[in-house]
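Re: that chain you flagged

S.,

Sorry for the slow reply, it's been a week of failed gels. I finally had a moment to sit down with the sequence you sent. For the record, here it is as I used it:
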Amino acid sequence: MMRILLGWLADLFYGLGQLALPGGRIGRAMARYFLHRCLSLNPGHERAQGYRDYLYGVWAVERGDPDAGLRLLRRAARALPQDPAVALDAGVALAICGQYEAAATTLSRLLQEHPHRLSGERQLWSALAWSHLRLRNYQQALETARAAATAGCASAQLRLVTLFANLACGDGFEAGVLAGLLRSHVRLLPNVLEFAEQMAEDDRPGLADQVLGALPADLQAHGLRLIASSSIHGRRWRAARWALARLQTFARERVAYLVLESELYLHEQQFPQALAAAEQAVAQAEPSTARGQRTGSGLGAAEEQLGEVLLVMGRSEEAFPHFVRALAEGSLSALAGGAVALRLVEQGRIQEARQVFRFSRRGAELGVAYAHLATALILLEEGQTGEALNLTELAWEAYRDLPAWAAQPSVRETLSTYLRRLAQDLAERAEAASQPDLLTGARRLLRNLERPASD
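Prediction finished late last night. Pasting the structure tokens below so you have them in one place:
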């Protein structure tokens, strides 16, 4: 009888969630609550789990974490294959995450299968047209924008797609129209920068210059910094050098230029040149005016870059004081924070090490590995073995995925030593406390560390 009652209540909450679902953000928040209640009563309710994944996926995308959102939305789409709205949001998330081929395929298929239900969805047309543009299918991008207008779904982003597709096809460029679009729709700036980077990487610098020239003067240098950083991390060297060449013409951006130039040399494994540029940046930089924000032009960013170059070159003792000064300038670098916190832990200064992470820190694989190792050691000292294991596993994943420029022998030796130390300590504590799950995880890490590096 109780099972029947719980099932009835679970279905009631599921139904309430379905009723709330179309009600915008407030409705989606209510739906999340109702679906959570449904699953607490009936954890095996597959449709409730699918819709909860869907709602949390949409929420993650709206919060600025599209990668996490995409994982949930894909899972929801598999669980709810008959709901095109779920597949639509998954397709849009693919475009946001830069998976343009998959996005174009998914969204085109949805339009064919559900023309009446989805042809009025503006986000579908925008994501599909933008995906074609980024795939360099310029005629298809234009045709998609025209079809969207016919369906009554014209938008500022589709106007932007039309401008850029015409430019790429050699049909002229309306710089004034682009400037007007940006004045009224500032959110389009990332799209503008992405297309300028695409033109530069395609060895069409003249077209990239036209796009850049349409930006307000006060945004051009900022845009070039973003393009250079994006290109460097994406290994788009031609676009990176185009952006740096243009950035060099801004006298006030000298330090930002040197920091980014050093970063480019570092990623190309030209270590002496990376070191020289970073040292020049530190010599010319002034203390930052806004702490806690990496602007790319302050002393904190320069010190951070110099510390990273020295660390990768195997000169960790020389790198340490630069990381300390970067943190003092407000750097939110995971690498600087992790390197300093590791030193503090070794000195037994656990509370000071924890203070390093009172702010959220960011970085790529190298910084993530250092920060997670430092935090895992702090947690281990505090007896939080489960959390320490989770972070050690994340540090291992970052270590395993280090790019070639960062995976230098001294770096790998340092990281593997800390990983092995943590895994062994966790295994010993698990055996002493009879914690089989912890012991299994620690032993798995040790086995991974014993395997030869794939590179």
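What I noticed first: The radius of gyration is 25 Å.

Talk soon,
D.
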